[in-house]
Amino acid sequence: MIEVESVCFTYGNKRVLENISFIVENGSFFCIAGPNGAGKSTLVKIVGRALRPSCGLVKLKSKDIWSFDAKSFAKAVAMIPQSPFYNFLRIREFVLTGRIPHFSVFQFRQTKKDKEAVDTALSLCGLDGLADEFMHKISGGERQLVFLARALASNPEVLIMDEPLSNLDINNQEKILYLLKYLKVKFGLTIVGVLHDLNIVSEFADRVLVLKDGQVKALGKPSEVINGELINKVYGAKNVEVFKKPQNSNPFVYIANI
């Protein structure tokens, strides 16, 4: 589905990403992890065509993403920003903006298909009862769900998320994670997400890329990648231990009380 080939990126004189290569399989949940300042957000912006790489190539279905016209790419790939912005639209109106890539040239009102897509997205995200509320009056967790609904309204093949769980309580984290799992299994949605919590990565990711200082330090299944040696090397954490959960053998990371 997505191929990243020898991508690098430079801000001014600083090399932020160096020789990044990986493949995201169709219908998989691919996570990007690493310490602050590792280049994670820059990488997902490049994959989502918000930034051009300084070198290398990103392909969607074997085609350079920059060869797509803007409308075609927006239909195929939806991106949720790291910090959802405030606006003064009602939730339903804002979710409808996710349908803009599907609008015809002189379309100024929603079609029946647009309404159905918005209704479905609101329902999937549990927002039916909030559809007429204003965006600036809802909580941060609800706002994150609204942005997810907006992305889903466009019926994308790929969903890209930059730290979708940041600043959310455990209830809203659970809602979003299990919804993403459902969308992946039920509809074959391909998901690329930046996540900080390695225990969540362990449970939900099919594969994980670990970055440090703009370079790939590990790539593979969480069970192959997440271990004490890697955490010490990448994060510099010295009192962290990792064990295999008995119910599924997934790695579990915790800070030892020494």
From TrEMBL:
InterPro entries: AAA+_ATPase (IPR003593), ABC_transporter-like_ATP-bd (IPR003439), ABC_transporter-like_CS (IPR017871), P-loop_NTPase (IPR027417). Residues 2-238 form the ABC transporter domain. This is Iron-chelate-transporting ATPase. Keywords: ATP-binding, Hydrolase, Nucleotide-binding, Transport. The keyword ATP-binding applies. One of its GO terms (molecular function) is ATP binding. PANTHER family: ABC TRANSPORTER ATP-BINDING PROTEIN, HEMIN IMPORT ATP-BINDING PROTEIN HMUV. Its EC number is 3.6.3.34. It is an enzyme of class 3 (hydrolase). The lineage of its organism: Bacteria, Pseudomonadati, Campylobacterota, Desulfurellia, Desulfurellales. It holds the Pfam family ABC_tran. The keyword Calcium does not apply.
